[in-house]
Structure prediction request, 284 residues.
Amino acid sequence: MILIADSGSTKTTWSILAPGKDVLSCETQGINPFFIEKEEILQLLNKEFTLPKEGVSSVYFYGAGCVPEKERTIAYPLSEFFNTQEVVIHTDLLAAARSLCKDQPGIVCILGTGSNSCYYDGKEISDHVSPLGFILGDEGSGANLGKRFLSDLLKNQLPEYLKEDFFGAYPMEISEILENVYRKPFPNRFLSGFTRFIAKHIEDTAVSGLVEDCFREFVKRNLLQYKQSRQIFTHFTGSIAYHFRDQLMNVMIENNLIPGRIMQHPMPGLIDYHLHIHNNELNS
Prediction:
């Protein structure tokens, strides 16, 4: 029985795969080793993980922030919680690539709370533009859209009715907004939370234009750096890509890029990938 986890900055989706049985899944908070320590991961799992853990032989954890120097931060609590030594840590970008491309080459993008991209050659990630996080980068992400929207709204760059609607939906002082952005933990989640309001008002040309501008920055500063970008499909996963796909397609076509799959979540494709690998191992 193997356990697969796909973790972004906001949530982690867990799925248990067992031969001849239905896939079991649950969700917990996101586990990003740049923002959470080993002890906190154990506490989170004890509180929020709801699947049976007995019999889990291998854990494949794909996550945001899972760079080599942070692998032990994730591997140690997972090994202890699931009582297994076989814990394999990969980036969430490889999860997206395996989910969207399987064994075919492609440009792969994540547009969720954060953003990321790579060139996947069908086996591994062979080119990567660093996303740099939501302060220096993460163009086109939920945090980026939320930051740009709040900045424009509070500096009176958007129609007045939007400001009235916003403070009707979120009755808080500007000082509270600044407190959440500059002093409280997970400001990227806070900023990304406003994408629901953005989506609700996407028919407003000022709002749709703002979203497309953020996607243009993502294309310019990320996708166009891959020499294959105009020759092969570019695939997307993540809530921002999925819910703002019309604006995303406008920008893709504008830049002569070839749109591929857009999936809200990578887990279904990732399950297919691991089942295929598992079946091949059984038959070999």
